[in-house]
Structure formats: C-alpha cells, structure tokens
Amino acid sequence: MSQPIQLIVGLGNPGPEYSQTRHNAGAWFVEQLARQAQTSLKHEPKFFGDIARIPLAGHDIKLLIPTTFMNLSGKAVQAVAQFYKIPTEHILVAHDEMALAPGVARFKLGGGHAGHNGLKDTTARLANDANFLRLRLGIGHPGDKHKVTGYVLGKAPASEQTLIEASIDEALRCLPILLKDGLVKAQSRLHSFQASTA
C-alpha cells in the first residue's frame, strides 16, 4: 500500500457514563485492537488522549483515543499528527455511523462529516484536509433528527450491541488486509460482511 497507516484513532466521549454508548463505537474498535495486541493505552496529557504503539502487519502503528469530548476530537489527532509528522492520508479514524445499520462496517477514504462532530473537528484541525481514511461502524438511525443526540448518547439494546461488536471483529480481521494489500481489497472483504443475530 503506497500510503501505510501510521495512526489509528477511535472516536468517543470520555468517562464511564459514555463508555457504553453508541457514539463510542470508534473507541471500542481501538480498545479491541489494543487488547488484541496485548497492550494498553496510556494517558498522555500532551496528546489530549490515551495512546499506544503496536506492530501490525509489519507496520509500527500508533493508537489514539482522544480524552476530549467528541466535538474537540481533532485537538488530540492534530497533536499526535504534528508531533510524529504523520500526513493526513496516513491516518485512519474509526467512528460511529448512523447512515449504516448495526452490523455493517465500511472503509472509506475522505469525504464529508455528515454532521458527525468528531469528524468535523478532526477535519478542521487537519487544516481542513478530509483526505484521511475512515472506518464507519454502523449504529443505525433513530428515524427522527430530533432524537439523534439521545440516540447516539444512549446504549444500544443487547441485540444491536452484538451486531456492532461483530462488525468491529470483522473490521479488525480486515485491518491487516488494508495494511498489506490496500484499500480496495480490504473494502471488498469488509463490505461483503453483514452481521446477523441468527
């Protein structure tokens, strides 16, 4: 892959009251990745987040979960990217995605933020460069825009949580493909996956 990933960010809100909410799906992905690598994220005040380093598919990768609130996520991403001189296109941001059903995950390069405050702030703080990779983890939509805040800051019912966790597992399996064989191959595997409760 001509643009190896150097930094994987998991978006979420800090604190125990938010840790199990849908908006933290991106953070769950990075937590799982750290567990899989048998490492733990450590708080780094200068990076406004919890950070770790792992070897993955022959690459040295930094993991980051911002400890700011979601709408200030970019502060942490910017701090790490500047310190380690990581170009925007070498960053993968994992986040919750209302446009996808629970159990569906997608890799995407660039694009808008669709009202997602974490993506909005990250793009703004990367000099308005949206050309980073995203891992979109489906959480579904409440069906009414007035219910969105309560929905993303609420816990998914157990059946939906199982689907979200299955899509995170599949995304973790696709990550080495992304690193070794590139975006198109990783997309073709991940995008054919649909978790089921059966």
UniProtKB/TrEMBL annotation:
Active site feature: H23 (proton acceptor)
Binding site for tRNA: Y18, F69, N71, N117
Database matches in CDD domains: PTH
Top-level EC class as recorded in UniProt: hydrolase
Pfam families given in the database record: Pept_tRNA_hydro
Gene3D superfamilies: Peptidyl-tRNA hydrolase (3.40.50.1470)
Known catalytic reactions: an N-acyl-L-alpha-aminoacyl-tRNA + H2O = an N-acyl-L-amino acid + a tRNA + H(+)
Site feature Discriminates between blocked and unblocked aminoacyl-tRNA, where: N13
EC nos: 3.1.1.29
Compartments, record wording: Cytoplasm
Site (Stabilizes the basic form of H active site to accept a proton): D96
GO molecular function per UniProt: peptidyl-tRNA hydrolase activity
Keywords: Cytoplasm, Hydrolase, RNA-binding, tRNA-binding
Protein's job: Hydrolyzes ribosome-free peptidyl-tRNAs (with 1 or more amino acids incorporated), which drop off the ribosome during protein synthesis, or as a result of ribosome stalling.
Self-association and partners: Monomer.
Record-linked PANTHER family: PEPTIDYL-TRNA HYDROLASE
Protein name: Peptidyl-tRNA hydrolase
Organism field: Alkalimonas mucilaginosa
The organism's taxonomic lineage, starting at the top: Bacteria, Pseudomonadati, Pseudomonadota, Gammaproteobacteria, Alkalimonas
